[in-house]
């Protein structure tokens, strides 16, 4: 069914299709519209789920953990400080191997108080064991949310998945949305280590030094195995529903001398910049990174690389740029742009590429030596 929807409404529509048994909800700008729309679906009978309005984001994730460990499908959504408040429990969800799916509407961290887009909130969760996908359109927000459940619940993965969408520039923008009937695309959930309240048992909660590292390795093993699961899931989605995705979305990269790498809505803005530069005779391309965890292998050898980070690790650098440098063993021109919703246009991105200085870092709006 074709309609017009916001990114937030698209996520809610996807959740309605998947029908999780438990949804835990706590409002926070700019995510609130997701849980409000889901609440409406539940109240009208369009979605038969247990909807739990909790007292905090920490409790929202705790409720999902409690439900998921019994072997049922769960969902929640948050943003910014709400995600930070969940941090203890996001570690727990991954460590307990629970396939919770969460939408995170990317928003800056205060102070100063700011409600606009930035990726630092999700980046602070990058080492917890959650898979992370970053979307750029309303349609992709819908499709990625549906696929997230199948990926998370696959027995080779059994890790939580975070679907990230930029605050306001995607969460509240209106775009076309084509909804689907998923049929048997997502198999029934089977959690091998689910507890059964009808057959109570005791569990030892303490893991000693002789075993704890094995649990850490098992998360890493599953993160590696998730690559194949993601590929298979996205291929099946394409064959059934006609929309194709990958670890990256590449635009004019094959013959490019210089490639700009970004995530989220800036990746779409970059495509317009590439068209302008091509007309100027500059062989540029755009690579929008979709999956940040697991971090993919990127085909950037022999190209100059400009990386736009909508995040920052103080005293270290742009997180995406440093990740690419480490994996590709290549210097990049790191651009810090879009923090706190700072406007970044296609003209700005084109200028980043024209005036690049490989091996340097540039703060847009601060430095004057692009």
Question: Which SSEs are present, and which pair or pack?
Answer:
Blueprint: E1 2-5, H1 7-18, E2 22-25, H2 32-43, E3 50-53, H3 57-68, E4 74-78, H4 80-85, H5 87-95, E5 101-106, H6 120-123, E6 131-134, H7 138-153, E7 161-166, E8 175-178, H8 212-241, E9 248-251, E10 258-262, H9 265-279, E11 284-289, E12 291-293, E13 304-309, H10 319-328, E14 333-336, H11 346-354, E15 361-363
Highlighted features:
370 residues; alpha/beta; Rossmann fold; 2 domains; 7-stranded mixed sheet; 6-stranded mixed sheet; 11 helices; 15 strands
General description of the model:
With 370 residues, the chain is of the alpha/beta class. The chain folds into 2 domains: 2-241, Thiamin diphosphate (ThDP)-binding fold, Pyr/PP domains (Rossmann fold, 3-Layer(aba) Sandwich); 248-363, Rossmann fold, CATH 3.40.50.920. 36% of the residues lie in helices and 18% in strands. A 7-stranded mixed sheet has the order 3-2-4-5-7-6-12, sandwiched between helices. The protein has a 6-stranded mixed sheet with strand order 9-11-10-13-14-15, with helices on both faces. Strands 1-8 form a two-stranded antiparallel sheet. Helix 1 (7-18) crosses helix 2 (32-43) and helix 9 (265-279) packs across helix 11. It is globular. It starts with a strand and ends in a 7-residue tail after the last strand.
């Amino acid at each position: 069914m074709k309609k017009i929807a916001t990114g937030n409404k698209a996520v809610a529509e996807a959740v309605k299709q998947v029908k999780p048994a438990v949804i835990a909800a706590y409002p926070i700008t700019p995510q609130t519209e997701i849980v409000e729309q889901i609440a409406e679906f539940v109240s009208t009978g369009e979605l038969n789920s247990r909807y739990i309005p909790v007292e905090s984001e920490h409790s929202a994730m705790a409720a999902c953990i409690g439900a998921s460990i019994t072997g049922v499908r769960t969902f929640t959504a948050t943003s910014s400080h709400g995600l930070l408040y969940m941090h203890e429990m996001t570690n727990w969800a991954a460590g307990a191997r629970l396939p919770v799916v969460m939408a995170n509407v990317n928003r800056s961290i205060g102070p100063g108080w700011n409600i606009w887009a930035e990726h630092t909130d999700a980046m602070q969760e990058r080492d917890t064991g959650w898979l992370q996908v970053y979307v750029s359109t309303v349609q992709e927000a819908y499709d990625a949310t549906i696929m997230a459940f199948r990926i998370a619940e696959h027995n080779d993965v059994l890790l939580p998945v975070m679907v990230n969408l930029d605050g306001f520039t995607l969460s509240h923008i209106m775009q076309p949305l084509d909804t689907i009937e998923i049929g048997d695309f997502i198999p029934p959930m089977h959690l091998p280590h689910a507890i059964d309240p009808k057959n109570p048992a005791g569990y030892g909660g303490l893991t000693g030094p002789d075993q704890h590292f094995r649990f850490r390795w098992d998360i890493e093993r599953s993160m590696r195995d998730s690559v194949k699961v993601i590929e298979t899931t996205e291929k099946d989605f394409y064959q059934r529903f006609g929309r194709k995705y990958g670890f990256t979305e590449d635009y004019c990269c094959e013959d490019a001398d210089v490639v700009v790498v970004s995530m989220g809505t800036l990746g779409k803005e970059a495509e317009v910049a590439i068209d302008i530069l091509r007309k100027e005779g500059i062989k540029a391309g755009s690579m929008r990174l979709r999956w940040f965890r697991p971090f993919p292998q990127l085909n950037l050898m022999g190209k100059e690389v400009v990386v736009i980070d909508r995040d920052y690790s103080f005293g270290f650098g742009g997180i995406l740029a440093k990740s690419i440098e480490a994996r590709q063993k290549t210097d990049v021109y790191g651009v810090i742009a879009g923090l706190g919703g700072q406007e970044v246009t296609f003209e700005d991105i084109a200028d980043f590429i024209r005036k690049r200085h490989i091996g340097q870092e540039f703060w847009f709006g601060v430095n004057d030596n692009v």
